[in-house]
Amino acid sequence: MSENAKLSLPDGQSLELPVLTGTKNEKAIDISNLRKQTGYITLDPGFVNTGSCESAITFLDGEQGILQFRGYPIEQLAAKSTFLEVAYLLIHGELPNKLQQQSFVDRVSWHAMIHEDMRHFFDGFSQNAHPMVILSSMISSLSAYYVEASGKASIENLELNSARLIAKVTTIAAFAYKKSVGQPFVYPRDELSYCANFLNMMFAVPAESYELDPEIERTLELLLILHADHEQNCSASTVRVVGSSMANVYASVASGILALWGPLHGGANQQVVQMLQQIHDDKAGISKYIEMAKNPKSDFRLMGFGHRVYKNFDPRASILKDACDRLLNKLGTNDPLLEIALKLEETALSDDYFIERKLYPTLDFYTGIIYRAIGIPINMFTVMFALGRVPGWIAQWKEMHEDPKQKIARPRQLFTGQTERSYKPMDDRL
Ligand code: ACO
Question: How far is ligand 1, taken at its centre, from the CA of residue 344, in Å?
């Protein structure tokens, strides 16, 4: 039975708004005809209460700490799956069978090289250019090579374009790193797994081959899986907004990369390690930083703490904390920043300020420590996040285009500026 919500407006209008129920019994009030019927709009800064779409990709319950991709709990995928399997699942809706998996893996390996002309693009960047800006520029440049990917038409060849994107993003990321350290590019190798190939392109040099540690390979696989999608966050919404204008999938994903770059989103993992380093170098102890984070007059925030949606715990953080312990034990790494991180976590979790505001460590809190142990430099952390998130962005882009209710994203505003006034000549201005 359909339910309605009743809305009474100050001008005496009242109307019934349909209440929609998701498969997890989540409720939404459908206001899509509100302005047409009443002239009113809703105002919701940061879209905290606004659902922008119906989606069947990722379910997350921030109160319960639940994350599922296409119905599969993240804990099961993290324990049993590979990243490419999860990528297929997100994009196609089902886990691949053996044949589908093999053909997807082959396709991704096949497309890992980038057009040789694109190599020269790297020359134009300064050596200290942030790899996120290189990554987004290069991904957007792919549109120049795969023109058939334009707009809605690319839905038909999305299989091909998604394999290209998932493959080439690792090559571009590794080339961006090589550029920053002044080493020659290492080309992709088909016989290596997705993660092994990336590690090889990052760390092999002509003088010395890279010796792959299976524990590092598996941890990277896990990291990519945990980052693969996270429903309508800032970057996924950006991909949808940009894609809604019929921009092609490369342009849309490139915009998602830029949205991810910000320190309040994917950039947080880099900020976490910078913060830990600052605490370490300062030697004043963590209490100074806890107090700064609590002080309303200070801008300082404990990076890696707090999440718009998770108000209990971040299930990805729990999985990663174990992986982090395992890896550091295996590698015998004694990272002083990890010690600070653990003390910070313990102190914050028992402090009323953080408890009352439900601020828990998120995924980003642990990723930096792992990346450091693997040898990935700090300016590549957010790039690593982007590598994992590409399948999620593609899945969101695809779902948006397949939704018959899809419209160009075009929010409204409540205008609070000057009402009409007459142009003032320059000499009359103060
Ligand atoms: N340290 C200290 N205080 C914090 C923190 C933090 N990390 N996060 C939130 N708070 C406080 C705020 O000051 C505010 O306090 P008040 O109620 O006294 O004013 C309260 O908690 C609520 O904070 P909001 O900013 O309103 O919460 P919102 O849901 O908008 O923000 C966000 C979420 C942006 C992630 C925030 O927690 C934050 O800035 N965290 C640090 C950055 C970070 O780690 N980002 C990664 C997010 S995960 C991701 O994108 C993958």
Answer: 16
**Residue 335 CA to ligand 1 centre (angstroms):** 26
What's residue 418's pLDDT?
97
Rg of the chain (C-alpha set): 23
pLDDT in tens, 110-140: 999 999 999 999 999 998 899 999 999 999 9
Q: Which atom, in ligand 1's list, is nearest to the CA of 308? A: 29
Parallel, antiparallel or unpaired: strands 66-69 and 72-73 = antiparallel
The DSSP H or E segment spanning 326 is helix 315-331
CA angle 101, 385, 402 (to 5 degrees): 55
State the catalytic residue, choosing from 265, 307, 314, 401.
307
Both tokens of residue 311?
Answer: 């108000």
How many Å lie between the centroid of ligand 1 and the Cα of residue 56?
27
Tell me the residue type at 204. Answer: A
Single-letter amino acid, residue 161:
N
pLDDT at 147: 79
Query: Is 367 a residue whose pLDDT tops 80?
Result: yes
User: Ligand 1 — pocket residues by CB below 6 A?
Assistant: 264-266, 268, 293, 301-308, 357, 359, 362, 364
Rounded to 5°, angle at Cα 409 from 74 and 135: 60
From residue 87, alpha-carbon distances to 135, 199, 229, 399, 403 in Å are 20, 19, 9, 14, 20
